[in-house]
Every structure is written in structure tokens, then in C-alpha cells.
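Feature request, filed as a ticket because there's no other form

It would be nice if the structure record came with a short human-readable summary line next to the C-alpha cells. Right now we just get the raw output. Example of a typical job, pasted below so the devs can see what we mean:
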Amino acid sequence: ATTVLMVCSSGRLTGGGACDPGGMAFSYLMAGCPSLVANLWDVTDGDIDRFCKTLLKSWLRDSTLALSSCVSDSRSACRLQQLVGASPVLYGVPLAYSAK
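Raw output as currently delivered:
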């Protein structure tokens, strides 16, 4: 199942060089999560709530849209688009929602 983590710095990865990256996002992917939306840095709660609401509405309303497109389009819902809107990223494979 796709996971949406709207927690501050939930998508930040640590490590580098010869080490594998580590962090909450990496743990989800290694556990088999196909895709994950998470934040790279600390964000304001009101703005990220607007982002999340717009993301879920657009992705669940239109089953033809890929999650990556919805993440990109939902950035405009944030008042601080260059700061908060740029924080959410998509890890994994871009999925499309299929309602049955």
C-alpha cells in the first residue's frame, strides 16, 4: 500500500559515501512499500495539511492520474510554495489509483 507521511523530515535520508542511506523513508521502502510521499525538511502544519488534502482529493477522485502528477500539482495549494510546497517528495514507483 502507498504510504503518505506528512511528518516533519519524514523523508530525510542520512548517510552517504560508502554507506547505504538510512531513515524512515528508506525503512518503509525496504519493508516492501511500493511508494511513499514524505517531507524532506520541517514544514508548517497548516500548509502541509492543505497540501495533503489537495493531494488525496486529486489522487482519489481521478483514477487516471499518477501519484507523481498529483504530488506535483498539489504543491500549489501551499501558501509558502517555495518552502513548504517543495518539501514533499515521492519515493518508489509512481502509482495510479484503481477503484473497483
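Something like this underneath would help us a lot:
The radius of gyration is 14 Å.
The CA atoms of residues 12 and 40 lie 5 Å apart.
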